[in-house]
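The records we work with from here on pair a chain with its fold. These numbers are not coordinates but entries in a learned vocabulary of local backbone shapes. To see the layout at work, look at the sequence and tokens printed below.
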Amino acid sequence: ISSLLAALAALALPGTAGATDVALEFSSGSDAARAEVIAALDASAFDWSLIARPVTVQIFDCGCAGSRPGVVVLDETMLASSPYGRAYTWGIVQHEFAHQVWWYALDEGRRIELQTVL
């Protein structure tokens, strides 16, 4: 448990990494939408470098958001025009990237331990 708490503390403490510390690969999306993804990651104090693997960002007019290992899917309209405000938009982006942290910064044992604690 102590190693899990140490890992959680490391994840919870503000970091200095932003979008430049994540290997982002955009496969689609407008310049405005791409810039919003970068702004959302840069606005966070979280250390996104913990992902430590390339993440492909797919941006479509889909009304959707989702994530699977190595891929984040986001909606073009939500990113480019922020109809619900930047806090909402950035929250969605950060949430989907948090899944990448879950898959790549924690091994299966730590994920099970964390789920038990939570």
